[in-house]
Amino acid sequence: MKILLIGQGIAGTMLAWALQQRGAQVRIADGSLPGNSSLPAAGIINPVTGKRFVKSWRIEEFFPVAQNAYQALERELKVPIWLPHPILRLLNTPEESNDWAARCALPNYTEYLSERPDAGAWQAFVKPGLGYGVIHKAARVHFPNLIGRFRQQAIEAGIFEHKALDYEDVLRVAPDYDAVVFCEGFRAAENPFFPELHWQLAKGEALLLRLPQAGDITDMLKKTMTLVPMGDGVFWAGGTYQWHYPDLLPSAAERDFILRHVAEMLDAPFEIIGHVAGVRPTVKDRRPYIGASRKHANLFIFNGLGTKGALLAPYWAEHLAGHLLDGKPLDPEVDTLRVV
Ligand SMILES: Cc1cc2nc3c(=O)[nH]c(=O)nc-3n(C[C@H](O)[C@H](O)[C@H](O)COP(=O)(O)OP(=O)(O)OC[C@H]3O[C@@H](n4cnc5c(N)ncnc54)[C@H](O)[C@@H]3O)c2cc1C
User: Fold this and answer.
1) Which atom of ligand 1 is nearest to the CA of 166?
2) What is the predicted pLDDT for the residue at 77?
3) What is the reported pTM?
4) Phi, psi for 83 (deg, rounded to 5)
């Protein structure tokens, strides 16, 4: 089967790989367009999220698929991709500490959460007076290594085109393929072949901070913001959520917002060495969009990974590959047919 993918962020990368694993002939086009979500992202997989510390949607199914896929790609591409890092969760109030303790006591949370009396390697850097918990089975997926190296391999194999396709181009080339799959991130909100989908795009920004003497820290640190160790004492600090935004660029207002929240967590000097922005392809009902166009039978979409591309992309790429190549039915939870 011959399949064209339009867009190679984390969605296009994982779908290309899943299709190739099943023997499909894949071609990829990506125009390196501004606002890409995967490259500025930290790639965090956090199994327990939100103010009430609840397990992420279908985490038990998605986590092992993600871990296996990223570790297999790490072996194949020979770059670090799957980086397990526990998350040190700062607990702000006695109520939060109590809620945390209650969750830790639940049998189906013991492999994910634990309490701890101090901040460990973060001790010299965090504000005093907070409580601490640890989230286990958390990881960072190195998106730039994965996407960059996968693209390099695709270029060498002669299956990658560095080009932004417009929708007329797509209609012209579609008859040459068994399927064309749009993996175009937030730009899907303008896609005329899927006008019925309900997007709620969320621009996000993050800073890169250098903390002197923090080179040995390997845990992530989370309160309102997350600090992610990137190596050599550099930390990704983010991310923000903007539902309305004038452009795709990093902004002074979001930089100040991140700095205010980092100041609530840290009692240590740091230097800002970078500032990034991108737009998350977030969906109103917070579920991916996978399925065929109602207007053209061989046009498909693989999108809507929202805030959780690292966790969701491997599982749903495999799912769509099974649908395209083996005719397996799509899960109604993600099928674009759910949209009326
Ligand atoms: C600041 C920030 C922090 C985040 N942190 C995390 C995190 O820690 N963990 C996590 O899981 N998720 C995180 N996310 C969300 C995550 O990044 C997304 O879920 C994911 O990247 C979406 O991937 P995608 O491939 O669908 O889209 P994108 O990464 O945006 O990729 C789309 C690609 O399509 C290409 N393209 C679009 N249209 C065309 C066209 N017509 N022709 C050719 N090419 C085209 C673009 O050039 C782009 O490369 C974060 C996002 C942001 C912005």
Assistant:
1) 41
2) 98
3) 0.98
4) -120, 95
